[in-house]
Structure prediction request, 276 residues.
Amino acid sequence: MKSEFGQYVGRVAPTPTGYMHLGHACTFLEAQRRARAAGGKLLLRIEDLDQARCKAEFVDALEEDLAWAGLRWEPEVLRQSERLSWFREALGRLREAGAVYPCSCSRKDVAEAIRAPHVEGQEPVYPGTCRERRFVFGTEADALAINWRFRVPDGEAIAFVDGRMGEQRFVAGEDFGDFLVWRKDGFPSYELAVVADDLAQGVTEVVRGEDLLASTARQLLLYRALGEKAPDFFHCPLILDTEGRRLAKRAGSLGLRELRARGTKPEDLLSLAGRT
Ligand code: GLU
Prediction:
């Protein structure tokens, strides 16, 4: 997809809570390949909203490691930690649209209210406890100090065509439930921050890991509630370790630093991952 000015805009959006590994490199190099093939540009966005876990040393390391892997991005790098006023505005738009509601449930409340077992690693469907709550009295500062949840259209199939995986379909209220867009610590959730920034940066295609497929369905609902056109999506396969587990932040021997120290050549990364 092209932007209004006809240009493809892609982005890579790492979270600096650890060192980059082969999986990151493969996904990001694919993003670069697609941007170049379309004659477009590639942006780097640092998703450093998790103040407790994101570290400056990881930001420096990721730029160094990704550049070593052959990735090139536009000079202006966006850092989400500097964009809180933009995220507040996005929350304001969702509130105005009546798409979100204040939620006082803790994780424990949600877990206790759900009897049905849920798939491990997948967020349980929110039971709807606070769905009818309204934010009536209070200042803007009060509004930013509570959790806000997005009300999903129960039973609606959210379908999209993924650039690699083809037709995808998730049913709201079944495959995922009402999800957080804002946390009472004053920060947006991943879903809201990503959508707000992909819009701000005029991203026309999102290339990322397959683990975020269901998130795409949630994000499509956010675009719709904001009255905005969504970008295209292309989800890459995840790289697994020798035991068949997906690579975590501590990827050991498949970390880019480790590969580099062992003398791996950047041009061999894709074949190492079985991608050529
Ligand atoms: N920052 C996210 C992550 O590292 C990726 C966000 C995205 O590509 O949408 O998992």
Summary: DSSP finds nine helices and ten strands in the chain. The domain at 83-200+213-223 is CATH 3.40.50.620 (Rossmann fold).
